[in-house]
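ugh ok fine here u go
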Amino acid sequence: MKARAAVKVTTAFEQKLIEIEAFLAEAGNTKAFDDLLADLADTIIPNLEQFPAMGRTFFGRPAESVESAIGVDRLTDALNALGQASELREIVTAQYVILYAVVAGTVFLLAVRHHRQLSFNFPSMNR
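structure:
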């Protein structure tokens, strides 16, 4: 039996959850936030523990602008600095996109956003 991967929540991920909670509260849909937390606890995190590579590779799509190409280069450099066993992946659900890194067998949840929110904020991510 294969060992389970550890899944760790970063400060940036926690901050994004707070932002989503506020976003959904403003939209009058607080139940959706409870559903997100339940999905994370009951499905997404247990699945990542068993299958860390289940999300699609973040770098699988081509950069379509100079800004995105520069961002991809920066992320690639940062990921490479962590070691060869590092990869950046994303899970796309019906309502959310979850960005995570797999580093030496450990899964780090980096960011989450609702599809109606604008984008990830890469400069503020940390472990």
